[in-house]
Write a structure and sequence with these properties.
The protein is mostly helical. It has a single domain, classed as Up-down Bundle (Ferritin), CATH 1.20.1260.10. It is built from seven helices and no strands. The N and C termini lie far apart (about 35 Å).
Length: about 170
């Protein structure tokens, strides 16, 4: 753990309002978009389109969360307190991505991306289950479904790379 992270982790562990949780989700998605963007020059050409697509989709997720977060008609709804999902601490840890240069191969990239997408899927699914029916719940469910699609595509690429000798 880096210096200063313990206080940040402690603060994130106790998030209860949807406003605060959405703020962390926006940061998570922006960190993912930046990470995937930084990976583009170092992955193989067959994987590059996927990394580019993930960067764009994560930016879109952050924008959608931002619109929800600042939508005047939803102010009361996002002030509600909810039980923090059990994945919240690991999710907030995802604000910090590794140096892309530490991922030496396409396999390393795919493994990291799979773990990140799985975590996001679990977090958004838990948030959808914890919120009342409405726009907030619908967005969390949509985000969970998006992350499932990302994970599925990454799994196909990973399988092709590992089990078919590299054809991603």
């Amino acid at each position: 753990m880096r210096e200063g992270d313990s206080g940040k982790s402690e603060r994130l562990r106790h998030l209860r309002s949807l406003t605060e949780i959405i703020d962390v989700a926006i940061q998570f998605e922006l960190a993912a978009a930046e990470f995937y963007q930084q990976l583009q020059p170092q992955v193989s050409k067959p994987l590059r389109w996927l990394v580019e697509s993930l960067a764009e989709e994560e930016k879109d997720h952050a924008e959608r969360l931002g619109k929800l977060r600042y939508h005047p008609d939803l102010y009361q709804e996002i002030q509600q307190q909810i039980e923090t999902p059990v994945t919240n601490l690991r999710f907030s840890d995802g604000l910090h991505t590794p140096d892309p240069k530490l991922l030496k191969s396409d396999q390393d990239v795919l493994q990291y991306a799979l773990s990140r997408e799985r975590l996001a899927m679990e977090q958004y699914r838990a948030l959808a289950e914890a919120t009342e029916p409405g726009e907030v719940k619908e967005l969390f469910q949509w985000l969970a479904d998006e992350e499932i699609e990302h994970k599925s595509e990454l799994e196909k690429r990973y399988y092709a790379l590992v089990h078919r000798g590299g054809g991603v």
